[in-house]
Design a protein that fits this description.
By secondary structure, the chain is mostly helical. Helix content is 62%, strand content 5%. It contains 23 helices and 7 strands. The protein has a 5-stranded mixed beta sheet. It is globular and about 85 Å long.
Length: 540
Amino acid sequence: MTETRPRTMHGMAVGAIALLFIVGGLMRLFPLADWPDRIYWQFLSEDGYLMQTVARNFALGLGLSTAEGTMPTNGVQPLATFLFAALHGLAGGDKMLAIAGVALLSTLQALLAAWAMAKLIRRLADDLPQAPLLAGLGAGLWLCGYAITAHSSNGLETGLYHLAVLLALLVYLRQTAAQATRPASTRESIVLGLVLGLVFLARNDAVFFIGGLLAAHVLIGGPAGGGPLRRLRDAVIAGSASLLAASPWLIHNKLYFGSIVPISGSAQSHNAALGQNLPVVPANLLEAMIAVLPIPGSIERSLAVWVLGPLLVAIVLLGFERWSRGRGVGMRRVLLGGTLFLGGVVGYYGLFFGAAHFIPRYFSVLSVLLWPMLVVLLGVLGHSLLKQRPALRPLLGLGLLMACGLALNNARMHWNHGEQHMHRQVAEWVGEHVPPEVWVGAVQTGTLGYFHDRTINLDGKVNPEALKVLRSSGDVRDDYIVGSPIQYVIDWASVADWVARPGAPAFSASFRVRVQDPVLNLGVMERVPAEGQAANTPSP
């Protein structure tokens, strides 16, 4: 009887792991269940469509650009953009077919990331009994996380970034295990640096990850690894190799755009107030750590979340520090490097960045560090509790059922929201009322620009000229739009207020409100035809 129960529990755990991986994979394939509605609107975000526009233009020979190839931009992350460009090339420019390819690629990346997550948890769990099952369950739950699914399927670099950071951690931990009795070789340092360079090309805020990991390599180890000076040499070699891997992109940015920082980063930060995003940091830190459950927006700024978020993250970091003692320098370096990475991400996006709605996505990469630590600590506590009270073992079965139920509920919620998109009404109105050859302008041009090629960005995110105007006068209406070929300005409903807003008499005389629908959240302004000139399209 006592022998049968562990075998039964083992079988249940293996079954739960299989179910979690199946559900996590199938969730990301929901877009393929409905053409053309769900395939366009299930997961791809506003910025995801922007990246797809740039990738498609690159595949068509128009370079990294928007606005039908007329507006060069570096407001994307290069590695993901080039991967997506390959999909658009294979699709022959077919927009719907390419988005189907994006869903398949995102699913593959997510499954690979979950595999890497399982390997990382297994490595961090060390000699913990049932570590393989713990790793599989932890990775499967992470794969099925509601926010993780959305972020890794959004048509951006997020899923690739998760995978790249996980693979870099596995490479580093394997190297440190091999270096238990010797210093790192030059070859190992170069390999690590090239891997870190790929992480940077996946997303450029990986500078915090790279800096944190290399700093931890130098600071932790005492006489091990040849001493601090030898480890400093290792870090310099690895850092130089990562810079070499990233240098083509950095040089491209400097030569063609005047700065190594992408234009999108400059646009999001140029008018940000110091610390304006700090109120949303605790909730997003907590969401990154628990991974499987989203923090409701209604409590995101509550006092309880402000207090509990940082407190629980600190408890996990301190608890894992205690667990890592005596388990090798690699684990301790990952802890310190991850903590420094966390500090860099929180410091930059909390203090100096604008656009708080991007914070959940930017913080999601922290889950690849915080979630494994949380899983390992829960495994340690569970093992200790069951040793003291074996009668509680049947509760493990209940826990497995709850984990599977949580994954299935996340899948249900994603399915139910599969045809909703914040910019669908904008793209559909233009498709129905504006001829393809007519130029339109919008503040948010990601989704619209994918469906209507002649779309000009007005917030400067992928438009250097608009950004220049915003930095000088703060208003693109008279100083940019009036002299442009834009015939329609279209966005959410509030954009229609631009005609009546003081400060742009030329714009107010040149444009009139065509649609202002708060229910649809749609605003359209059209250029007033010159005397004797017909309007571009008939009224709806």
